[in-house]
Structures are given as structure tokens and as C-alpha cells.
Amino acid sequence: MIEQTLQALQIIVETVPVGTNLALIHLMWSILNGSFLGSRGAIFPALQESGFEPEQIRRSWQAMRYGAWCIDEAVAVMA
């Protein structure tokens, strides 16, 4: 089940530039595994709870905030 979920996430971010795509997968994985519930929506604690290293957490934050991606493209891939 986990492998299938990660494959689905990879498909969603396949149009995103390299580097940003992996960071967004980390972020989406944290959402899916429930880490955001325990952190009450806080990004850094949720990623930390998911087991990511500090550098991975910073990259995920930067990808979300400054990355070259569009939510409309990700949603279109899922449709």
C-alpha cells in the first residue's frame, strides 16, 4: 500500500522540476501519513514527525514557498 501511494505521488509531481518534485513528495507524504494532525498544521513539526532530516525539511519548505510548480497541474494529473 505504501509503495502504491508513493508511486501515485510520483505521478502527481512528474511535471515539477527536479529537486522540487522530491521536496513536494516529502510534504505530501507528511500530509497523507497524518503528521499534520499532530502538529496542528505546522509544516516543520509535521515533516520532523515524519522522520525527515533538517535539510530535507528546509528543502520541502522552500519547494512549497518558492518552488516552480502549480497546483492546477497536479490536480489535472490526478483527474
What does this structure look like?
The protein is an all-alpha fold. It has one domain (2-78). The chain has helices spanning 2-12, 20-32, 35-38, 43-49, 54-66, 71-78. The model has no long low-confidence stretch (mean pLDDT 85).
List its salient traits.
79 residues; mainly alpha
**Which regions have little confidence, pLDDT < 50, spanning 5+ residues?**
none
Number of strands: 0
Mean pLDDT: 85
Shape: globular
| Overall tally of structural domains | 1
Q: What is the terminal separation in angstroms? A: 21 Å
Give a brief outline of the structure.
The protein is mainly alpha-helical and 79 residues long.
Topology summary:
Layout: H1 2-12, H2 20-32, H3 35-38, H4 43-49, H5 54-66, H6 71-78
